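INPUT
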Amino acid sequence: MKLSNMHLKTLREVPNEAEIASHILLLRTGMIRKLVSGVYGFMPLGWRSVRKIEEIVRQEMDAKGAQEIHMSAVQPAELWMESGRWFKYGPELWRLKDRNGREFCLGPTHEEIFTDIVRSDVNSYRQLPLNLYQIQTKYRDEARPRFGLMRSREFVMKDAYSFDRTFKDLDKSYDDMYDAYEKVFTRCGLNFRPVEADTGAIGGSNSHEFTALSEVGESEIAYCEKCNMAATTEKAACVDAPASNEKELPLEEVHTPGTKTIEEVADFLKLDKTQTLKALLFVTYDDDGKEKGYVAAFIRGDRELNRTKLVNALNIPEHAIEFADEAKMAAVTGCVGGFTGPVGLHDCKIVVDSEIPGLRNLCAGACKADYHMKNVNYGRDYNADIVADIKLLKVGDPCPVCGAPVKHARGIEVGQVFKLGTKYSESMGAYYKDENQKDQLIVMGCYGIGVTRTLAAIVEQHHDENGIIWPMSVAPYHVIITLVNPEDEVQSKVADDMYQKLLKAGIEVLLDDRKERPGVKFKDADLLGIPIRITVGRGAASGQIEYKRRSETEKEEISAAEAIARAIRTVEEEK
Amino acid sequence: MKLSNMHLKTLREVPNEAEIASHILLLRTGMIRKLVSGVYGFMPLGWRSVRKIEEIVRQEMDAKGAQEIHMSAVQPAELWMESGRWFKYGPELWRLKDRNGREFCLGPTHEEIFTDIVRSDVNSYRQLPLNLYQIQTKYRDEARPRFGLMRSREFVMKDAYSFDRTFKDLDKSYDDMYDAYEKVFTRCGLNFRPVEADTGAIGGSNSHEFTALSEVGESEIAYCEKCNMAATTEKAACVDAPASNEKELPLEEVHTPGTKTIEEVADFLKLDKTQTLKALLFVTYDDDGKEKGYVAAFIRGDRELNRTKLVNALNIPEHAIEFADEAKMAAVTGCVGGFTGPVGLHDCKIVVDSEIPGLRNLCAGACKADYHMKNVNYGRDYNADIVADIKLLKVGDPCPVCGAPVKHARGIEVGQVFKLGTKYSESMGAYYKDENQKDQLIVMGCYGIGVTRTLAAIVEQHHDENGIIWPMSVAPYHVIITLVNPEDEVQSKVADDMYQKLLKAGIEVLLDDRKERPGVKFKDADLLGIPIRITVGRGAASGQIEYKRRSETEKEEISAAEAIARAIRTVEEEK
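OUTPUT
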């Protein structure tokens, strides 16, 4: 395409709202366009790249025998009530009513719809396995949409659902998708890592996130360089401290004025933080958003709470819990802000981290202002409603697999695969008849790729201070020919000739024939990040042009014919 | 693809809800799937055909230099308020709120969004002309969704918007799109007719509908075989009866007991219906849905009212008018059900058809039960607030262009092109600077193709009693190989060999290797309507297979090699 005909509006300045590179660059290149907070449109170049990612996804899904379909984005509430998610899903579920008052939502995922398909279409074991997918616009009414395509309210997603006879068959489907995802993200040019993940609101047993490594990512992952363990910090299991064989000492109340934090009390009493017990206080809500009860969670003083693990231990939706108003909670449970301990607490659910019962003689709040208790022991002095691993795996903690110290990294979740098992087939009644004509639950998996988020992740990993550096596979165009002086007949002829020849060879090529200063054109070429840049300037008179890769600094003067041959070869190799 | 691996569920019976061929066949082939009333999903075969139509549309749009983008389906109310459509658009506009109570709609069209793009991106005349389009899921919350994809609440649409400097340039853009649409629908195998159309809620001056001819279509068109005039009956202009040169006779009240209809009064008074005046009574509503006032429309007794023309004459939204409750209206305006005439009516808007002022001595209701007035004359006895053509062009009426008697036909509106002019650029402030740096309004056009409705229209025109007969260009697959007996090794080998060779040649081929009775397979092949059917049966032993076009009745016994060559050639020619 000729740039003089293209709708292109690049920006020199960094848009106010944008903080991270992908957001800044996608806006500056004019590839995306904000409509309202968290809702973006795609302009010609941006949409081309989205469609290339879609095509890569489609090819790899098809290669695994998955079949593309397209279901409605608008879903009736009834199906979500059947699965139980209508109430469990938080305010991120964008709900609406039709003219008759019937309730719908704009689908964030499609488990219900796909389960509904198989429960009506699948009768026999002969119809399984089955993998259906779609590439579609999805919705999440985020409280704080941010970072452009990274966390938006409308986004393009590929979602696939597998249906199997057995859990063993599900393993095979899961592995197939895992493999397809590795291929997809490799082809997209991403540096990524599959990590074990929590299953969140989707439910199910096993899950992996595909994380594109990036400092600006919202996923934090813990990984071990020794044994390759990798998991989201939400999910990563922790190694409990070894059980103590200290003798249980008598409970002792001590005056600890003004020591509201673990640091303060440990300092004051000259204790190591590992000898203290930290309390975290929460209120929970029911499906209607009314306060339901209080929760006190206890972990060793040096640990940090893993909120996801706590939510899972309580078996409640993520949005059904918040930090408690301590004054309100005190009136009901006897807790005392800054001095809460497990002894003497009442009328609340007590959750204790899994290593606590093995530890001895900890120091905890006395539920009395300015007092702590020493030598608090689980079993003797208090009991818990739930004992579970609710702590965070921190940098340097022992790896849960091999014991080596773990590291942390940040990343962008670009894909996730789940073993759903029979969660949805059970709640919605999806069965097949086995060889003996007996009804069996269909075993499900689900698999998502954030197509538009992948676009942002690619930009995060492929840019420099001048702009984007597209991998060939997802570049909106392969080649840009910068015609330095469109008034110069020789230059125009050479540029146009190359343009036509490249087009004919099936290369996607932009010809920058705009009447702009050369500096503007070079800046735009860098900003847009087209992988191969051909500059037709004064050298054109002697048949020479300048050939440059966007990813490299060297330029070469070569003949037009050689440039064409080289561009065709390179695109063939890399696309 | 092998059918044994494909998710395919065909139905033998006609689904209850379906009345027309496309709805029945798309459901019976399992290509579409109803989610709720007016909302359908697309299963593998259906989605393949939709994507083929999309690709045809994309190619023809790109060939005209239009650029594909992708805007949000969710649109903020603010933009619709700017254009004035938030209130004018009826309950078909599917409205919703986000978690913060901000109002949005699910876009039925995108004029506001695209106008917003150009008003911010376009500064100079040098950036024009511009044509941007998208292929996207659209929404209309229909009161009575029906006929499957024909009138659904969610549908795939291509919408394009052109931006020009002048109305003359708009003519060129419009002609380009008109031409592209002719190519698109021709490639889709449709028998269609472009007809002049009303501009409806979109607004603007000129418009053509592309109508796929079909008895089940909801568009009624009037056309002339002599001069090629063609228009929707909503739009079609009428030729007024010639003005009368009769002398005006004195008004005369006559007793006409029980003659409530035109037929009755004409019979009773022995008048021709052309000598009578028919009254139609309406109530109108304001933007908040409150009653605003009454309207009495008068046409010659033998004519029918064209409601669209009336709405346009009144310059109100289509949904802001309904037939009046005569009793309620009588109290305000003095009308009398069955005996309403223009003389003596008060406190209502009087709209008179354009030919009425030229006629003389008509018989009209006397606004008095059981009485009519004879010799009612416009100007002398009454006046109107509006005089406009509000009558329907009926079969046999003179063609407004050449005077020959017109015919009627029914069709499915698969596309529409509009000259919007400056309607949106004016209301939303979209200007460009001309050569003299002066602000000028951008001149717009908009152009829609109902992609999923086109799919239905194709099926309406291409089917027989056994199923669909796909044109090659939009067939989900080109060839189906029916393997009669999968247990037979020779048959299996021949079928599989042909399958592989066709795949390798880039042919989209289905292999029916299911363990089903041959009758079931043949029935499914007919139902699915794949253009080329190759049957591998007993003849396989001697190297012969059966070759048949779905559109024809003859079968031929030919060699496998010849069948492959012929299939490849045919697909090449027709795809």
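end of record. The CA atoms of residues 161 and 446 of chain B lie 4 Å apart.
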